[in-house]
Amino acid sequence: xxxxPKPTGSQLGxxxxxxxxxxxxxxxxxxxxxxxxxxxxxxxxxxxGMPYFKAVQEWQKNQE
Length: 64
Hints:
Largest sheet: none
Number of helices: 3
Low-confidence stretches: none
């Protein structure tokens, strides 16, 4: 059985970019921190991670 795919450079870049955009929105634009700011950063990272999530889903589908 093959190992789960690792994120490519572009997928990793999108995750990081999503987190950075979330940080800019939460701290720079909205001026919030704490749990709300962390939630916005996490949401940005999750949205940036969607291409990697889809790649893992495709890999899992091909394993069956």
